[in-house]
Hints:
The protein has 755 residues and is mostly beta strands. It has nine helices and 50 strands.
Amino acid sequence: MTMISNINRDWWFTQDREQCTDSAQFTSETKYQHIDLPHxxxxxxxxxxxxxxLQQDFTYHKALVIDEAMLTEHLIIKFAGALSxxxxxxxxxxxxxxxxxxxxxxxxxxxxLKLGENIITLQLSGREQxxxxxxxxxxxxxCFPGIxxxxxxxxxxDLRVKNVxxxxxxxxxxxxxxxxxxxxxxxxxxxQACALKISVFDDEKQHVIETKVQVESGQQQLQxxxxxxQPIELWHVDNPYLYEFxxxxxxxxxxxxxxxxxxxxxxxxxxxxxxxxxxxxxxxxIGTNRHQSYPYLGYAMGQRAQALDAELIKQWGFNMARTSHxxxxxxxLDRCDELGILVFEELPGWQHIGDEEWQQRSLDNIRAMxxxxxxxxxxxxxxxxxxxxxxxxxxxxxxxxxxxxxxxxRQTGGVRCFENSEFLExxxxxxxxxxxxxxxxxxxxxxxxxxxxxxxxxxxxxxxHMFPTKRTDCENWQMEHVTRHLKVxxxxxxxxxxxxxxxWCLFDYNTHRDFGSxxxxxxxxxxxxxxxxxxxxxxxxxxxxAEQRVVLTPVTxxxxxxxxEANPLPLIILTNCxxxxxxxxxxxxxxxxxxxxxxxxxxxPPVIIDxxxxxxxxxxxxxxxxxxxxxxxxxxxxxxxxxxxxxxxQPQELTIELQTEQLWANxxxxxxxxxxxxxxxxxxxxxxxxxxxxxxxxxxxxxxxxVLPLTAGSAAFWLxxxxxxxxxxxxxxxxxxxxxxxxxxxxxxANGSGE
Length: 755
Ligand code: GAL
């Protein structure tokens, strides 16, 4: 018997809040749309949309057929994420309400079910209602309505393990596992004692802990402290070792109860006055802020896309992500656990604090966030203050107290953007946008906190709106963008009191009219909305060890006349090589080293070639013939990479990069496809603006338009799949040959997957 099943398929969707108790209506009335979850209630174009179109009410219905066996069990429905002001009805009766759009909710269905067909109805709203956080003020992002994560149906016996909190204690000396188990007597009639079997497995499925405890009748909470009697592997960003926890109830009469399972890690983390320490060692935090949205589909892109964002974060050299400005997809957090990305998770909010009722909802959000995510080893700090809000002694005292009560192992932070704010958290977390005002690059923590003593301190945003940059912007602009990221990163490392810095932000995102470039996009990302990187992404990628990934990125399109005064200098080359050698067809050759004088704190400063160090190397004075440039990167005196820049770039190839090898059929699985115009040296052709036409076999679906312009040489889109088999994707353009790619589409196993 499948005890937890995903019920994402076959929902009926309509606008407005409404009721319906007979599935015959769904097929007979045209107002209903047959859909699968996750679902975005209102798709929008990439840009230039009217966000008030999203501000409507919507209803989702599902016909659930209940047989006799199911009526003898206890059924619980769980919504992992639906935005917002949710009201759940069963056969027309209100069963539960959940106003927040980012945290999960559940309902015990059984008392409301009958044999045969039952109609589950979820009404929700895209209206930005001022009594529900984050609403009430203005917000620099779009909150996309819909049931945008998984819905599952759980079948339980009378007693279930509702939640478990795992706290790893004294991990560096005598590791222990503190286990807090919350039981739920679904019928309130549970009269017998029972046993709980607890197991912890390592990643080879070997037992590390195995024990049994007795539960007295009526007992709902229990706490155990379990010794670990063998060497453990610590979780670390470079070795994200996960253990699996399993707790099963052994009921009498051989009745099977649904076990509770989760993964966790043994690790110790602490923000101190002298930085962030992971397992006792200082780790410089290099982070990025991330929204969970995607072009066209908002939040409803599915688990794989969310998880792949974590992969990009890792590949691009970050060790931390902030879930700005709400609890994000469990799939994203799971992948952070697996990849070794530290997470700053925060409650929903943006600058505005509402009245008492609003604040209570906010406290409820903190509880829901922590209770959902306390077992993720990746999460190292809870953000318990509404991003960039004013001080509010009472509200934030309660917020901190609640977080500390719920979780004794993690510190709290609260993101502000002004100096001398009341410090009620454990870590002073500050959005520092000072660069550009005078000489200061990052603020001195003492000036920010106004406190005499040092306190743990983290920069939670920088860059962003201070220098919006599009992939289509000219080279000089992109160079300044890169320089600003380099400067803040370097300065954040200069002061050991600063634990690190988290940039604003990972990708360009949709926003309200009060922000952005008038087209409802904030171009604040180090990549565009399709996650195609700008030059600035390699500021971070180049901070990795060359063994992880060699980076050699000249911040140039290598043209005679792109920059003002036709001056190719300064030339910034982002790299993690020890040095680079530059040559030209003239035979001139010169070695250049990373500029440690300008960026003394970066692990891998860029090479910067300017009038001072170019010497006689002929980097193209005005009137000289424009020539190819060859770059070679060396590590330990060995050549590890070369990049050739042509003086005469010619369209050579339209590359089509598929983000994954296959797609799962008939679910929310998606694959990003990046199409790029490349020259004879494999360099992107930023001004080749062909239109591309995308054609697919019947079992593939393009999310968004099927005719796209190459923008700064690239076009990207996501694909979904229907029936299994081989899918065919054909791309046509004016300048390149037509190309076809084959994608295998696989059938999912019974339980389904994908948000
Ligand atoms: C911050 C804010 C972010 C984003 C950013 C743009 O003030 O916290 O959400 O709006 O500015 O740079």
